[in-house]
Fold this protein.
Amino acid sequence: MADTMEKIVSLCKRRGFIFQSSDIYGGLANTWDYGPFGVELKNNVKRAWWKANVYERDDIFGMDAAILMHPKVWEASGHVENFFDLKSDCKSCKKRFKSEDLKTAKVCPECGGELTEARPFNLMFKTHRGVIEDASSVVYLRPETAQGMFVNFANILDSRHPKLPFGIAQIGKAFRNEITPGNFTFRTCEFEQMEIEYFVRPEEADKKLEEWIEAHFNWYIDLGINKDNLRKRPHEKEELAHYARACVDIEYRFPFTTRGAQADGTWSELEGIANRTDFDLAQHSKISGKELQYFDDAAKQKFYPYIIEPSGGVDRTVLAFLVDAFCEEKVKDDIRVVLKLHKDLAPTKVAVLPLLRNRPEIVELARKISRDLKKSMVAVYDDTGAIGKLYRRQDEVGTLYCVTVDVQSLEDNQVTVRDRDTMQQERIGIDRIKEYLLNKLS
Ligand code: GAP
């Protein structure tokens, strides 16, 4: 288990998926930068989510709100008052612990030192806007994207005139001053969320909650996650957020070995799907003084809709897809490392490789094919090694197909196409190659 996580972290650095942030300065702990393949994978995850939740539906409107919001937003939302974790510090080694992680421990689990009393710690990053640093200039980095959608509820109603049920979707950065970040990109202070606020009639809330849980559970499976590694976990009453009446987490079995690990991995939250009731709209209406009720034309009635909120983390989802796709296969006397990412998620769809890099006609033809394919899909040209090595490198980053140009290609105008998962090879005419690949990718 420990091994798997180490191998994935190492592959991410070696092949350009995820780097330690500010590495040349010794790194900023638990902060990560996405490299060339990482940013493609992340964008593909976000694109797949947006497609399933916005483009393929008639009842969801996309938006992109500012990260900085009026400070009263966070008073109304309850984050100033309630968004706390309890923490204790070790008086000897100075390590900081979340009280819930300490469970019944009375001394520091690291060094046995004395612990301070548990103290509340607000997770919001606070800063000041403008030149004067006083109470009137306080702003927060948003700890969830959700509030940007609640405060735009009336704007969406007025500009798009939707009928219930309908939703707003957003993908964007969120920030939390986590006490115990860790497990690679799983828990960080800066991360991205993919959230939907779905407005429903109160009497429909339970049914819609179930529908969203099913739809989102299946989304991960449709994109290749092994369903044995995915489960639904309803929240206990005590763990519900201050705004939620019910919540079900979709959890993935990560190969983490730190606190709380079981022998077969650690079930950890990818996404929470909550019934937030009318808490947010009623609060914002009360604090802002603006009308945020929905007017039902037929019944001539005003009311606050309830909100069903599927809220997932982009970084955790990317990590789950990486872990699930990571395979080591024995091929003859060798081990082949391959990322079997779903075709929609693979960072590169095709690599064009010249079999002989010292033959200018082969190189020129391979470059031409690559230039042409780039107009229709993410394609790369690579001639930095022998063919065996190039195949292995492309397998490690999950490239779906390798197109090889050889001496025979110059005569018969055909190339070899190799499939990442089966390693089967096929000869295809150069004039058909684009159509052939687009067919496979569609
Ligand atoms: N609007 C509801 C909300 O923010 P949450 O359960 O606190 O709910 C939703 O967060 C999702 O955001 C989580 O399921 C997780 O995927 C992601 N997330 C939360 N905190 C995170 C962190 N510190 N690092 C990475 N992802 C995080």
User: Anything to note?
Assistant: The chain has a mean pLDDT of 95.
